[in-house]
What we know:
Blueprint: H1 2-20, E1 43-48, E2 51-57, E3 61-63, E4 70-76, E5 82-87, E6 92-93, E7 96-98, E8 103-105, E9 114-119, E10 124-127, H2 140-152, E11 157-161, E12 164-170, E13 178-184, E14 187-192
Parallel strand pairs: 3-14
Antiparallel strand pairs: 1-2, 2-4, 4-10, 5-9, 6-12, 7-8, 7-11, 11-14, 12-13
Amino acid sequence: MRVSKLLLSLIMITFLLGGCGSQGNVDNISSNSDDYDVLNIPRAEITEDDFVYRLVTEKEEYQKGYSVKIYAELEYIGDKETVIIYHAASPFYFPIVEKTRDYEINYGMNEPLLSTTLKRGQPLREEYEKSGGYGEQDKKEYVDFIKSFWENGFPAGYYVVDGYVDFYVQSNEDSNDKEDFNIKTQIDFKVNE
Length: 193
């Protein structure tokens, strides 16, 4: 009888403790973003050959619940008036990592072959739109994080955007020779409680 009561008590404690750890609330997970300093300025720019790639966020720190603005630009600075670039659905990619939790917010892309004409000195600009996903093999905490991100925007944390632009140009209009470009840079920011 005493063994049954002890066993029943252990089972009850196990259920109670198990329930406390799986509330599914992203806010209950400490982001520890205070342990991180924003290392980059909110704007990164890199020039490769005849192209300038910029990755920008409006602020180094945002308050939770406010919109985080991120955008990228590609500018042609070569000798021609225009140049045609070939790319997937967009030449811009915005993969993001929340460093305190080590969570990736992937950036998927449809991959048709599209072309865009760039005019010299006129940047092509694209704003970041929410992305990311999860699968049935992902941990509940990660799934809760992504769901919260989709519904409420960036949860509190320290974020690094490893942005890049991926495209090619034909070297000569009369041939199939092409020059590939994959220009990368990085920005970071915090979201505070």
